User: What shape does this take?
Amino acid sequence: ETGVTQTPRHLVMGMTNKKSLKCEQHLGHNAMYWYKQSAKKPLELMFVYNFKEQTENNSVPSRFSPECPNSSHLFLHLHTLQPEDSALYLCASSQEGTGTSGANVLTFGAGSRLTVL
Amino acid sequence: KQEVTQIPAALSVPEGENLVLNCSFTDSAIYNLQWFRQDPGKGLTSLLLIQSSQREQTSGRLNASLDKSSGRSTLYIAASQPGDSATYLCAGIKAAGNKLTFGGGTRVLVKP
Assistant: This one.
């Protein structure tokens, strides 16, 4: 148990479906992240939330819609996805860094493996 | 253009041999460097974090160094074991904000 729990662990969906990925952290952190890991590509940052506010959107298509109702929960709503969106979606959390002396140790969840048919 | 590069992409060694994994970064704004381990189909486990004020960090058989002037970090794993087989990722952390930029990883196989 890493302190960051992601559900579901595996998801198969059609291109017209609507589904959501959920992430929950029990570490008292105030920053949460979504990362995408595709085959043969480096991990890509998608979204960052600090104190429930979105502070980073890395040019992610609108078919991915994040939601952060509180500092402990993060969702990724999926709608009209494409087969190339199939990937491992990783959630992470950290204590927000404090200037240049901050050490942002990220704790990752186990990921949600998404397959889009 | 990839900001963080890991070479080699894959590495196979016999058990007991020391492992040397390289990470290089081009962005001078990267000031902390974090190493992770990822087992197949799993999430990431943080191994070591080297802050800008440090040159190296050690944890058990693991030692990571950071040379900001050359834009390089090296992860050493002493006396490798089959259980060390995994993908090792490095990630740079910039001074502004709290996002990590990852390298492509080095897939390690330690043969018994």
